[in-house]
Predict the 3D structure of the following.
Amino acid sequence: MTGKPTRWRALFETQWKWTRSVLLLISLTTFAIPLLSLRSSVGARDESLFISSMQTWAVAYAFAAAGVGLLTAMLAWAYDHRLRHVYALSLPIERWRYALMRFTAGITLIALPIATLLVGAEIVAHSALVPKTLHSYPIALTLRFTFAALVAYSVFFAISSATARTAGYILAAIGLMFALNIVLRAAGSRIDLPGYLTDLFLAAPGLLAVFGGRWMLVDV
Amino acid sequence: MPFAIETRDLHFRPGGGFEISNLSMHVPTGSLYGFLGPNGAGKTTTIRLLLGLTPKQRGTITVLGRSMPSDYVEVMARTGYVPERPHLYPTLSVDETLRLHSAFHTRWDDTWANELKRQFGLIGDRRVASLSKGETGKLMMLLALAQQPELLVLDEPTDGLDPVVRRDVLEALLAYVSSHAATVLISSHLVHELERICDWIAVMDRGRMVAELPMQEFKDGIKRLVIADAARALGETPFTVLARKQGSGGGEQWLVRGWTNGMREYFVSTGGTLREVIDLDLEEGFVELLRSFRGAA
């Protein structure tokens, strides 16, 4: 054993160990998405077809951002849950501080796929294969990805940190909403509860609005 | 007498019919306090309450002079805890576990941790998940000791370990206690183990404290008396009769608590005949104490 790390670093090291395989896989993916999108668009006859071909990859960025947030958050708590939090609770540290350290360690880990996305996007931006009449937005795309990944991470971190009972309440509430919707529809109502909630969260200024919109690396 | 742990009217009802009720506990500072009780008596729950791992519903808990659970950060910094079940991250190696634990304990002794690791035969790059039960027990004890605590709370630390590992673990514990004058609360249902090392004993059953006293007093005070003419001897006894059993020839065997040799006079004064005073070991005393408690309940 060498040296005594800071508490944050010690927790970061545990999270790195739990997350690294998944994180490396996602980092490779975020590096590859811009390159693959370029490759599939290169043969386009004109700029509009080039753009629309690039746009078909937009959903991949959103999924990657949601995936990195979800997996990093879940893995931050997975072993504590498995051990019923006994080790964490027996440490001489305030519980809120422990959670904050786990949270910030996860944010630091998310920097890796963000960095590889930026590298991949910059390679595309500086490639001679992008038509001269179009512009590349590697920084804007990376910022959007960063924001989306952080939103996803925060939401899933909060859910993952809750007890199984709380998760059960959330699932029960969702189930109840769908059941209520079916009853309302059967009664002839035109209320669409799932649709309303989807709009509430996904349309601006909803919490998850960042996942909608244009995820364009190359645009006019 | 100063107490490292003190509870008053502690109450906790987790459901399922079980409850810890009006629990008063006094662990003298510097003592090796054995916490005995059958499985399901509430020992683990009590320990979890003491350390703030489970929130109490009523009563007061003072650990190392601090109120629990509000002062748990200060208390846990001075307390080594070995839980009943392994609580370490299975994917970390032994060395990574030590590194993680050391980060949270300011009094962590790296040199001694390495010495204990060598003494316990733990290999640094082995994953916790691949350790045997005995090795995991040793690692948990190592973590608790190397943080140099003033109080050690050990919940069945040797349960399921083979005799060799058990001896290693207890030797390391006793060496630490003798050099650091630490207080130890050790819960177990292995009566002989506690008899060998503890100087205080508490017996818990069904969520209640049945007895709490110095070990010697417990062992000296619980006797089996063989009495002839037992009917004459019944009355205001200076000791507590826990159980009576018919013996041969009209005699009886009494299990008594609070016995001292001077009490032989009582039989002379009542006309009863005390034939024999039999010493009980801790296990017999423990079993009889539980029987009488359950009978009374």
In short: Residues 3-214 of chain B form a domain with the Rossmann fold fold (CATH 3.40.50.300). Chain B has eleven helices and 14 strands. Chain B has two domains: 3-214, 223-279. The CA atoms of residues 137 and 218 of chain B lie 30 Å apart.
